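Appendix B, record 7
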Amino acid sequence: MTSQRPRWVAAATLAGLLVLSACGSDGDSGSLADATPSATASASKDADGFTAEEREVIDAVERYQDAILLRGTKSVEATLDGLTTDELFDRMVPQMKAATEDKGLQFIGTYTLEPEVVTISGDSAELHACLDSSRSALVERGQKEAGVGAIPGGLADMKYGLVKVDGVWLVNDPLKESATC
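Structure tokens (predicted):
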């Protein structure tokens, strides 16, 4: 009889990593509490219905998720550099390294991010989106396909907090709200 412990540990690791990629405070900063979606009657929108400024917020979150889920064997420190606030970077990099790189693991596959609502108030923004990482998996470093022992991704209803620093949107508070979208 083979032990189920490696699969359980692997599943727990992936769940933890998905939470880490979405790690944020569970407290509401309140900075966007009274804000409304930033779309205005005079703002032109793209094909998806977002303004140029809203698209900048979405693009910043996509770069952040790319840095985590599409980094392959690159270090999380190198891929996250310049995409998050210093506070989030300092908290997240050691946790992600310990959970992946130090254990000889990496993500493979793809994900989709479906933006739902973007709210901008001055230099703060919030994006509500569905993160679908069900086509990704956590595998041993160097593997190209998800096989035995791979930990599949899943769905997450996400709320990303961002701040604009020197004209660049940085993720500062990614929070997984639920495991479904």
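Remarks on this record: The chain has a mean pLDDT of 82. The radius of gyration is 17 Å.
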